[in-house]
Amino acid sequence: MKFLSNKISMLILFIILIGFNIYFFTQFKELNNLAQQEVEILDLRFGYSLDEVNRFFSIIGNEGRAKYAEISKTDMLYPISYGLLIISLLTFLTRSNTKLYFLNIFPVAAVVIDFFENVSIVKLMENFPNISEEMVSYTSNLTQIKWLFIVFSILLVLILLYKKIKKAQKN
């Protein structure tokens, strides 16, 4: 992990993350055009119901679902980029205390859950309009858990950064 915690690696990972975000921004604009309105994909919500999923898939139509499936394929790589960046930051910020390396479990969990969420969303699209409440509930739970791990991971980075700055100010 130490090779990830140098400034060059973190910069490269940050640039890759920005590249993904630019790509997704353009793809979401296309999805909005296909839907003829602004829509919020399931991945970016903090949970959703069967009615919301059915409405969303209906609004984006067949072309939109095909576009969303295409976006979801790229979204299988995105968690790796944000996960490695958060791991890099956590490793950089905890390298004076190797006992804190276990904190990397949180971004790793976010990445793994994000993969399962992406697969589950694709399965929802493949089964639409015959999706069940259980399928949606499972996927929505994955989305919620993913967001909790991501937010917690970012909070860890911010707390450790704050502590590092405070320690540097004392010296």
What do these coordinates show?
The chain is mostly helical and 171 residues long. Helices cover 77% and strands 0% of the residues. Helix 1 (7-35) crosses helix 2 (50-74).
Number of helical segments with 4 or more residues:
5
User: What is the number of E strands?
Assistant: 0
How would you sum up the major sheet? none
User: pLDDT under 50 segments (min length 5)?
Assistant: none
**What is the overall silhouette?**
elongated
Give a brief rundown of this model.
This protein is an all-alpha fold and 171 residues long. The protein is 77% helix and 0% strand. The model has no long low-confidence stretch (mean pLDDT 90).
Keywords:
171 residues, mainly alpha, 77% helix, elongated
Topology:
Elements lengths: L6 H29 L14 H25 L3 H17 L10 H23 L5 H38 L1
